[in-house]
Amino acid sequence: MEPSSPQDEGQRKKQPKKPLPEVLPRPPRALFCLTLENPVRKACISIVEWKPFETIILLTIFANCVALAVYLPMPEDDNNALNLGLEKLEYFFLIVFSIEAAMKIIAYGFLFHQDAYLRSGWNVLDFIIVFLGVFTVILEQVNLIQSNTAPLSSKGAGLDVKALRAFRVLRPLRLVSGVPSLQVVLNSIFKAMLPLFHIALLVLFMVIIYAIIGLELFKGKMHKTCYFIGTDIVATVENEKPSPCARTGSGRPCTINGSECRGGWPGPNHGITHFDNFGFSMLTVYQCITMEGWTDVLYWVNDAIGNEWPWIYFVTLILLGSFFILNLVLGVLSGEFTKEREKAKSRGTFQKLREKQQLEEDLRGYLSWVTQGEVMDVDDLREGKLTSDEGGSDTESLYEIAGLNKIIQFVRHWRQWNRIFRWKCHEVVKSRVFYWLVILIVALNTLSIASEHHHQPLWLTHLQDVANRVLLSLFTVEMLMKMYGLGLRQYFMSIFNRFDCFVVCSGILEILLVESGVMTPLGISVLRCIRLLRIFKITKYWTSLSNLVASLLNSIRSIASLLLLLFLFIIICALLGMQLFGGRYDFEDTEVRRSNFDNFPQALISVFQVLTGEDWNSVMYNGIMAYGGPSYPGVLVCIYFIILFVCGNYILLNVFLAIAVDNLAEAESLTSAQKAKAEERRRRKMSKGLPDKSEEEKTMMAKKLEQKPKGEGIPTTAKLKIDEFESNVNEVKDPYPSADFPGDDEEDEPEIPISPRPRPLAELQLKEKAVPIPEASAFFIFSPTNKWVAPWQRCWVGSGALREGCFLL
Question: Are residues 321 and 435 in the same domain?
Fold first, then answer.
């Protein structure tokens, strides 16, 4: 091969520069006056492209979120020293964000260039948030000037900026522009917005239809209740809320003495739940669709007009609205994830996953053959064929002269028996019996801990203490056996083993400290119950479950990003709830509302309660009553809760289900591919086993084997392994071989294979890079032409293990 010329090398060096034109150049001018040579613009470009700059902005956003969370909203515009300090701190955050926006505008341009600041959607969001903050400060200063110039009439004058302050809760959204994983999840959700919009129109159409039907059927029917005769006092049983009644028919009669059914009652939930007009009728229908409190509405209607036919209205509403139309959201999201999976499959991601699994199987096969060599070495040791005994007589005579022969022989025999005993211990800890024995001990430990209860007898306490010591001893023996059989390095490579060692050592230390009277029992033995998680490692032999777990692990990154996005959504809604309802859930009935927005932790819990749909309508009713009840502007509060429930419950939480459905589909695809591959192997093996027969006879034999009931004579619960290189097709091997059973270290220590022989390297089609023989001297003294180095150079083209040894020479 001719050496490359300097011109060729120069051309190769220039090749990587081809993609550079794809990067769009910076605009020659920004804001119509600042060129690329302007020192101010140069400084802005260097700062915004400085990597720590983005980190500083993200930390500032996080600090701003903490300041918003610490703020304590108070009713009637009250304030305290903490809130005043936080209001002053808001100016600092606003200045930082304004400087950031100004520097990016100067560096990238404002609007008209292709890569301008406002050409990015996330920058538009940042700019709107900063603009609203600056606009709020300007209005505050205008109000302050007006109050100083006209102090007598300042009350009620000026512009109210309290509503604009609520937009400060959008600042956590700026985290999205700095976290790429959040942008990926949001972009996936935005792609599904168009079909989701179609479903929203369908839901709105159905709500309108049922609202109109309810308006025609139940208008004015829910304002009668039982009053004491001659008074305006509602006649109810103690601790019972009033409900509608009926004077005639099968509705609820007034059964309390001296009471009568009379109109004038606002209605259930302080007059919020009724069908008197189109707006409240839609709100009531939507509440029923969410399946929270719909039975209460049904029973109130039954009390008002009877129970003969209203159930038809509500049952059809739930069937069509909740069970069918709203579940289309899950179908749309799942369909979008399926499309993304198909795109990934077409790009080769799916095939790469299958190839990765195949390479891992082949690697385990080769490692198993290497381990088989160690078994043969142990067999040689049992026969006394020590390689060290093949040494020369001069060495032995030297040992005899030195008087060390007996010591050397003792050391040799000790090492021999140590290797044999260690290998036996290795086989024991990797066996199926040992694995299930440990699982049994862990289950007994769990039962011992679960038997504890309040006011238990002394004999049970003593029995639990003895059981704890015995089980701890057994776990200690298990740990020591694994350390000896596997070696400390291999033992601590497993996360399960690290956890086991920590639990065992903590349990021993706890017993020693308790016996010495230094401390009281901590209950560390409870941690040993976590070892039951080991049983999930049996998925190695359960193909379908193993594929599902693999698919779930591959989607951890998407789930983590979605969790972060959901947490960010909860934070924003909680901060907005504090701005709207902080300090307002204080009513005259002296009943404490547990779901409120008076502080940030309680606001987080309230928002999460609304997302889960548990009694979310009661939180909405309290919010409406906090602003004056079912009249303007209190009725507008329902918009906050409806948006929170729709975006959180129907979209974000359904994305988790969509990911789960997509993982099931991917796991089924992997399982189908494995079944097809196993069928192909079976056909190939059958063809190899019938070399003298014609193709027609082979096809007939294959059909007969296919018609034979699967698993005949074989337990259906076991995954059978059949050697495809054996002539006996019906030979069935142990489905759980002792040396290949999943213990705590199947990923750390190779196993003796009781499985098909690994494929030859030629079939793997691995691309191997040719490594030239170095021309330098080995060990600084052996030249490449040395007669001792030449034989090792010939082995350079052999296996990788020999190549590493040759490289040293």
Answer: no
State which residues form the domain around 754: 692-764
For residue 640, being part of any structural domain is answered with: no
Q: Is the pLDDT of residue 738 over 50?
A: no
Q: Residues 512, 487: contact at Cβ < 8 Å?
A: no
- If you count them, how many residues does the chain have? 809
Structure tokens at 512: 């020693």
CB atoms within 10 A of CB 458: 7
Q: How many CB atoms within 10 Å of residue 413?
A: 12
At 507 the pLDDT is: 82
Residue 291 domain-assigned (yes or no): yes
Q: Which amino acid is at 194?
A: L
* DSSP states of 680-739: HHHHHHHHHT-TTS-HHHHHHHHHHHHHSPTTTTS-TTS-----TTSS-TT----SS-GG
> Which residues lie closer than 8 Å to 554 by C-beta, 6 or more apart?
353, 666
The residue-averaged pLDDT of 460-467 equals 90
Residue closest to 171 by CA, chosen among 48, 68, 52, 55: 68
C-alpha span between 559 and 537 (Å, rounded):
22
Q: How much of the chain, in percent, has pLDDT values that exceed 90?
A: 15
- What are the distances in angstroms from CA 56 to CA 50, 51, 96, 100, 756? 10, 9, 10, 11, 57
Please tell me whether 804 is known to bind a ligand: no
Tell me, what CATH number does 471's domain have? 1.20.120.350
The β-bridge partners of 263 are: 224
| Residues paired with 372 in a beta bridge | none
Asked whether residue 292 is marked as a ligand-binding residue, the answer is yes
Q: What is this structure's pTM? A: 0.65
